[in-house]
User: What shape does this take?
Amino acid sequence: SALTQPASVSGSPGQSITISCTGTSSDIGYYNYVSWYQQRPGKAPTLMIYDVTNRPSRVSNRFSGSKSGNTASLTISGLQAEDEADYYCSSYTGSSTSVFGGGTKLTVL
Amino acid sequence: EVQLLESGGGLVQPGGSLRLSCVASGFTFSTYAMSWVRQAPGKGLEWVSAISGTGEAIYSYADSVRGRFTISRDNSKNTLHLQMSGLRVEDTAIYFCAKAAGTFYFGSGTSWGQGTLVTVSS
Assistant: This one.
């Protein structure tokens, strides 16, 4: 089953927001292979966080990831207008398979 | 610079077949696992299939496509394929190929193509 994300979150410039991603003990709770993607309208997804907490070098350190039990989280600090996008989490589920969350629309007020 | 370019999408009738391709450049294609992810119009991302890199290939499929789709790769041509048969209306989506972080697939897509649109309709 798909991972569970809130449909939408919002925040004002400069604030911090957190997007949750809830799975099960068979995916997020078992593996440290959680990724987060940003997708702007009409564009391909881009990797923001991998292996729960790791950030590709090109990604701003305002983005951070964490996990507790069956729930992973993406935190964006110092919110900027350019952060407005859809965000998806994904988790490895074993046997070379993975699952995505339903996506969260971030609105910067 | 990693580049992935998908092609092969189009309009097909239910029950029909289509073969997608993804040409890779900017990295040693054969050593990386690759995957296909799709996105129905206005919907979220759905993982479809993955194949491992160098060595004996490991294939994996989502339940929704298992038995109908076949993933393969031609390392001599730096190309990933997705053979789709028995297509259904619900297979309508943009199909993205993505490069994994290493030889084996553990769920992450470090680079993505721009996608190719598959429309299944009568």
Observations:
- Chain A touches chain B at residues 2, 31, 33-35, 37, 39, 43-47, 50-51, 56, 88, 90-93, 95-103 (CB under 8 Å).
- DSSP finds no helices and nine strands in chain A.
- The mean pLDDT of chain A is 97.
